[in-house]
Amino acid sequence: MKRPGSTALALADRRLVVCLGPGGVGKTTISAALALHLALGGRKVDVMTVDPAPRLLDALGLRVDDSSLQPVSLGAMGARGGARLRALKLDPKRVFDRLIERYAPSAAARDAILADRVYRNLSNALAGVADYMAMEQLLELSRAPDADMIVLDTPPAAEALDFLGAPRRMLELLGSRAVTLLGAAGDAMRGPFSMLDLAARAVLGAFDRVTGLHLLGDVRNFVRNFSGMYAGFAERAEAAGELLRDPRTLIVVVATAERERIAQAIEFVAALNEMDLKAGAIAINRLRPPLPGAGEIAKSRKIPESLRAKLQSHLADLAALQTREQAALDALHAALPQGVELLHATDLGREPRSLADLAEIAKTIRRA
């Protein structure tokens, strides 16, 4: 069976690494391992997880209830001079509040929005808002004066594509007719409206009368309060999209050596192309290390005969798994899109629980 090559992954010219892929393939582990590897090499690295997996927080020694950038101690890891590693898990509400404070035209407008009923529910509940706020947090990290390298762990599967498309969707929303309609003042007509516009307002008005929730008025006030901040949001959305398309950004699709997972990885690459985003690599995680030969077990005099038979049976099972693994890898090689690099990462054999475990995984990440 082919094993990983001897050339380590080169990231010297990168400033952002985005890891995405289906759930359960070790995407969070690869993200954390890469971040640690880069930091130990002397870079200043920030790693952010949109999917706050407990394993990442545990391995990095982070507090679960803290959503700010937390320093990771590298004291016992032999890091090069100038090294730094910080990590955070996303808090969309906190990021949204910071944006309001930054772009509100006045203190009164800021306070009105932060206290607004629609805003409070919007900032806490909608997944699309969380996606955009994650991009805002990423942009904020990238613009920090001490920013050197950022590693981003995205949500699993299709949610990651929603996340990467958040800047585009925000621009579409800000330019939509819905925003224009909801921002129209009172019931007075300020220009021509279609019958559909009038029908929509009639339905919302009837809903308010039945429920007593005053939804139309609340939403209209919410949109009015935001009217002076659309330009700032649009500028940030455009900048976030440019960051994802920057030549120094590497998008890594993480998978395992199973036909279904590899098929998903290929679909991810195609979906990214449709979004005008380019995957730079597919990382196959948890590859089994080379097995000992059956002859070694047969020749060993230290192994009792009863145990020898069990070991040989287990070895045959593992060999069969590796054969299937290699078949999946061969299929990936045949379907690998042009310009997409193939990476291998060896299975640790246990759940990573410490920085040492993450460093061990990082050492196995190689070009195939």
Secondary-structure map with pairings?
Layout: E1 16-20, H1 27-40, E2 44-49, H2 54-60, E3 70-71, E4 84-89, H3 92-103, H4 107-115, H5 117-125, H6 127-142, E5 149-153, H7 158-164, H8 166-174, H9 177-182, H10 195-211, H11 215-226, H12 230-245, E6 249-256, H13 259-274, E7 279-287, H14 294-299, H15 305-335, E8 341-346, H16 355-364, E9 366-367
Parallel strand pairs: 1-5, 1-6, 2-4, 2-5, 6-7, 7-8
Antiparallel strand pairs: 3-4, 8-9
What is this entry, summarized?
The chain is α/β, with parallel strands linked by helices and 368 residues long. The chain is built from 16 helices and nine strands. The protein has a nine-stranded mixed beta sheet, sandwiched between helices.
Tally the helices: 16
Helical content stands at 40-55%
- Could you give me the name of the CATH homologous superfamily of one domain? P-loop containing nucleotide triphosphate hydrolases
Q: What is the average of the pLDDT values?
A: 77
Summarize the biggest pleated sheet: 9 strands, mixed
User: Reading side by side through the largest sheet, how are the strands ordered?
Assistant: 3-4-2-5-1-6-7-8-9
Predict the CATH topology of one domain. Rossmann fold
C-alpha-based Rg, rounded:
25 Å
Beta-strand share of residues: 5-15%
Q: What is the string of helix and strand elements?
A: EHEHEEHHHHEHHHHHHEHEHHEHE
Unreliable stretches covering 5 or more consecutive residues: 1-6, 184-198, 206-213
* Termini separation: 12 Å
The CATH class of one domain, by name, is: Alpha Beta
Chain oligomer state: single chain
Name the CATH architecture of one domain. Answer: 3-Layer(aba) Sandwich
